[in-house]
């Protein structure tokens, strides 16, 4: 069994918890997830099975989309609803729709974020949440992330209340903390804030409508129909540039040969998928760091020894 199984991650489980459960359900060990989702977050979590674990990082590196709710009026230790209240201010003012939209526009494009203390980022060999659980706050390295779009999912013309809540949809790059984005929205409004709800609705080419719950997967295993729900590993690479090769070159690719970069891909900076005429991905290549005009394999997905062993 190999390919991508888009999981509808439930609330209360970590990404690792989901992998642990799926290993038991599917009775296989070679399973990997494609990026950590906090326990409180639900939604799209593509799971890689078998040989597809080789392409997990390319799903992780692709863009993501979320729908969430920001609560203006109090902040928490974890920047989401599960944390303890840090600061609470009675919200007396109201905000116009134009003001909220202006704030969202300010936070669109390349922005700088500081990872929250309750996160899996490592500093000095230790994850930040380990420091946080010990009551230690340390300096964290800031990072640049890209917010492609933020859409206000609320039709109100005036936002009032104590606290004020509204929903939004965001498309962003790898490494974006939506919790921190909610806090930044509050900062722009001059009030403490946190992310009160979050669902990931898209990860790379996988949408929430593609996903199965853990219960769905158990039922599909029982009926023997799960293989119909698993996407080929090529689906995980659909956002990357492709280069089709003939059988002669394919044999070299399977053996990890260094190749000249095709003229039409010389301006491509990221990974390149080399595929057969039938669209089967054989390897992922990248520009050689030392040799101009040459590319080398980053991942060989199908090699000669594997194919001989499968006959």
What does this molecule look like?
By secondary structure, this protein is an alpha+beta fold. It has three domains: 3-62 and 204-236, Pseudouridine synthase (2-Layer Sandwich), CATH 3.30.2350; 64-199, Pseudouridine synthase (2-Layer Sandwich), CATH 3.30.2350; 240-310, Roll (Archaeosine Trna-guanine Transglycosylase, Chain: A, domain 4), CATH 2.30.130. 23% of the residues lie in helices and 33% in strands. It is built from eight helices and 20 strands. The chain has helices at 15-26, 56-61, 97-106, 128-133, 178-189, 214-223, 247-254, 304-310; strands at 3-9, 31-33, 42-49, 64-72, 74-76, 85-88, 95-96, 109-113, 122-123, 126-127, 143-152, 158-159, 164-172, 193-203, 206-207, 242-244, 259-260, 272-275, 281-287, 294-300. The strands form five sheets. Strands 1, 2, 3, 4, 8, 11, 13, 14 and 15 form a nine-stranded mixed sheet that branches. A five-stranded mixed sheet has the order 16-18-19-20-17, with helices on one face.
Major sheet description: 9 strands, mixed
Mean pLDDT: 91
Using the CA coordinates, give the radius of gyration.
Answer: 22 Å
Count of strand segments: 20
Number of helices: 8
Q: Topology as H/E string?
A: EHEEHEEEEHEEEHEEEHEEHEHEEEEH
In terms of DSSP E residues, the strand content is: 25-35%
Structural class: alpha+beta
- List unreliable stretches of 5+ residues: none
Determine the fraction of residues in helical runs and give it as a percent range: 10-25%
Overall 3D shape: globular
CATH fold label of the largest domain: Pseudouridine synthase
CATH class annotation of the largest domain = Alpha Beta
* N-end to C-end Cα span: 16 Å
């Amino acid at each position: 069994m190999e390919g991508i199984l888009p999981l509808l991650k439930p609330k209360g489980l970590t990404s690792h918890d989901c992998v642990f459960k799926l290993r038991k359900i599917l009775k296989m060990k070679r399973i990997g997830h494609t990026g950590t989702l906090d326990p409180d977050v639900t939604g799209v979590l593509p799971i890689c099975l078998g040989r597809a674990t080789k392409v997990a990082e390319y799903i992780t590196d692709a863009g993501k989309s979320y729908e969430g709710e920001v609560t203006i009026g109090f902040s928490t230790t974890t920047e989401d609803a599960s944390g303890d209240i840090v600061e609470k201010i009675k919200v007396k003012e109201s905000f116009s729709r134009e003001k909220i939209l202006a704030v969202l526009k300010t936070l669109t494009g390349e922005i700088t974020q500081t990872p929250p203390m309750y996160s899996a980022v490592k500093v000095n060999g230790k994850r930040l949440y380990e420091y946080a659980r010990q009551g230690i706050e340390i300096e964290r390295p800031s990072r640049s992330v890209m917010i492609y779009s933020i859409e206000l999912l609320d039709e109100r013309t005036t936002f009032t209340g104590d606290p004020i809540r509204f929903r939004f949809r965001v498309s962003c790059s790898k490494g974006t903390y939506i919790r921190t984005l909610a806090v930044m929205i509050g900062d722009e409004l001059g009030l403490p804030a946190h992310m009160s709800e979050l669902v990931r609705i898209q990860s790379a080419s996988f949408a929430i409508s593609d996903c199965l719950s853990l219960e769905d997967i158990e039922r599909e295993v029982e009926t023997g129909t799960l293989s119909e729900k698993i996407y080929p590993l090529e689906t995980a690479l659909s956002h990357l540039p492709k280069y089709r090769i003939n059988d002669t070159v394919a044999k070299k690719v399977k053996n990890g040969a260094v190749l000249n970069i095709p003229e039409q891909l010389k301006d491509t900076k990221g990974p390149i998928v080399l595929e057969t005429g039938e669209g089967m991905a054989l390897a992922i290549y990248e520009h050689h760091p030392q040799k101009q005009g040459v590319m080398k394999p980053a991942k060989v997905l199908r090699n000669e020894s594997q194919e001989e062993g499968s006959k």
